[in-house]
Specification:
The chain is of the alpha/beta class. It is built from ten helices and eleven strands.
């Protein structure tokens, strides 16, 4: 496999990483790939409690939970998920089951549980798992999804990867295993940063060019091709995000400009975030 070098970028800890494009498939990625062990130090609890371009300003606050919940509800609506859900509930005799991979503090698991699902989550970071279990009373498995089975083959109606696939060392294997765990007619929903016009223009200064946490950077076409090659059908997608990140004490002009550009890039499908919903075929 051959790679075209794009640029290098230093991590917050001063380690330098190379960003390359695969000559065969054009997928942009970190190369060589850091090991899981070497990346773990970037996910200590400060990632969730100290504001930066890479993490959150107290991920466990009610304010952040409300904002995250608002975004994923909008995403679900734009995908037509609620129409699919209504039909699915009519065709299934038992409560629907969901699994959120990389669930962090379990906000989406909590949402699905409140919507009547038998809801589960998977997360490896200690702090979010503790919060989800103790504060929200959720069923969260703390382990790597690729090492996890629990006898759930073909057991889930909905499996989600919210801003997770870009962090995974084995994304294709993960998508293949998700396919195995979906019931016939079930859906995969995933969101990830999009390597498109905005990313190419900004280069190493792009807001999602976070090394080494983000290992892969997909284009819309890359991800659609991967899903179809693994047997998923009817992939629906949209993009959003103008690249203008909300900041504390931002000016009125910045706020207005961001609203305008956010609307335009979504309408023109040029956003630097993208969301997919794809189905496992019925038997």
């Amino acid at each position: 496999m051959h790679f075209k070098p794009l640029f290098s970028k230093d991590s917050p800890l001063g380690e330098r990483f190379q960003i390359v494009s695969c000559s065969g498939c054009s997928l942009v990625q970190v190369n060589p790939q850091p090991t899981i062990e070497s990346v773990k130090k970037y996910y200590d609890d400060s990632y969730f409690t100290q504001r930066s371009d890479r993490g959150y300003d107290n991920y466990y606050s009610e304010k952040i939970k409300t904002e995250i919940s608002r975004v994923f509800r909008l995403n679900l609506e734009d995908l037509g998920f609620f129409d699919w859900e209504s039909k699915r509930k009519l065709s299934e005799k038992f409560p629907l089951r969901s699994l959120d991979i990389g669930c962090a503090a379990g906000y989406f698991v909590d949402y699905m549980k409140s919507s009547g699902y038998e809801a589960f989550g998977i997360e490896i970071a200690d702090g979010p798992v503790k919060f989800a279990r103790e504060n929200l009373g959720l069923t969260i498995h703390q382990e790597n999804f690729l090492d996890w089975d629990k006898g759930f083959s073909q057991s889930f109606d909905v499996i989600t990867l919210w801003a997770t696939i870009e962090h995974l060392h084995q994304p294709k294997e993960t998508l293949a295993k998700i396919f195995k765990h979906l019931k016939p007619g079930g859906v995969l929903i995933l969101s990830t940063c999009r390597y498109g016009l905005l990313a190419k223009w900004m280069g190493k200064d792009w807001r999602y060019m976070n090394v080494p946490e983000h290992l892969y950077y997909y284009s819309l076409g890359d991800l659609k091709h991967s899903l179809l090659s693994l047997g998923y059908t009817n992939p629906k997608s949209f993009s959003y995000g103008s690249g203008m990140t909300t900041k504390p004490n931002q000016s009125y002009l910045f706020s207005i400009s961001k609203k305008i550009f956010d609307v335009l890039v979504k309408r023109w499908n040029m956003g630097d975030m993208m969301v997919f919903m794809a189905s496992k075929p019925n038997l």
